[in-house]
Amino acid sequence: MRRSIPHTEEHVLYRRIALAALIVAGSVHGSLAAADPARCRELIRKYETDKARLSAIEISLSLFAAANADCINLVTELLDHGASVDARDRLGARPLSHAARSGHLAMVDLLLARGAPVDARNLAGSTALYFAAERGHVAIVQRLLDRGADVNLTGRSGASPVAAAAYAGRDMVVRMLLAHGADGRKADDTGKPPVVYAAAGGQLGIVKQLLAREIDVNARYANDLTLLMWAAGPDETVPEAQALEVVTYLLEGGAKVDDRDARGRTALMIAAEGNHPAIARTLLAHGADPALADKAGKHAADLTILSALREELTPR
């Protein structure tokens, strides 16, 4: 079992846009160069060399690259000479989203002061707040919230900023978004609400936050999976000890140990298939029945490749 917020070509295209700007635009000139960090100097030099010949598209490319690189003086220069805070890249994102995603608070402040629309969305629906939440940029999340950003506008696949933060394990960001009215129960287009991503990601702090908002610990999600099942079959990058903390918390909170999903599988079967012996033993200690079979007739012992775990799971 793997959690997933589907991705688009955003990351590759952002890099291409920045590279294109370095080639076709650029920037640096006396006072500008003195004030900006070294990584901005080539952009500024090229901009000063080519600005008389730049098209509106090339100026926008320069603006996106400067926002990504946190070149405050260059962005100021571009905006003063006609660049638009409402310019869009190939994915529909504005400069504010570039700055928020890159973690540049001063750039975010500049763009907002120049009238950047705080809730502008890219083609997938993602806002600057979504990007900042996903990346865990706490100060930027706070600034956008202070400026009235909508906490419930969804991004790719219908995932909300709080879902993106839960998926990425951004505990503090989740807390901030919930405090500002984020809907912690809303499922995305795949049928998973934020708490599912937190459970599958072994994020105990976030699971606790979300369950405290009157979410049923035994609720069913897509394919009849429960939180315990998601926690018992965590994302492959999650250490078993970390996932075990969530499993234990859910069991102690009343999770039903032998509930079945659409395939007839229990949390024990899922843990066995994922080869998680510590989780399987904890489930057994809480009364999980290893004699149960799924709809294909397989028992938990049939699903693991670990011989020692298979022995423990084989009904006597």
From TrEMBL:
Superkingdom in the source lineage: Bacteria
Keyword Repeat found: yes
SMART domains attached to this UniProt entry: ANK (SM00248)
Keyword annotations of the record: ANK repeat, Repeat
Per-repeat ranges for ANK: 91-123, 124-156, 157-189, 190-222, 263-295
Protein name, as recorded: Ankyrin repeat protein
Organism: Bradyrhizobium elkanii
Native organism taxonomy: Bacteria, Pseudomonadati, Pseudomonadota, Alphaproteobacteria, Hyphomicrobiales
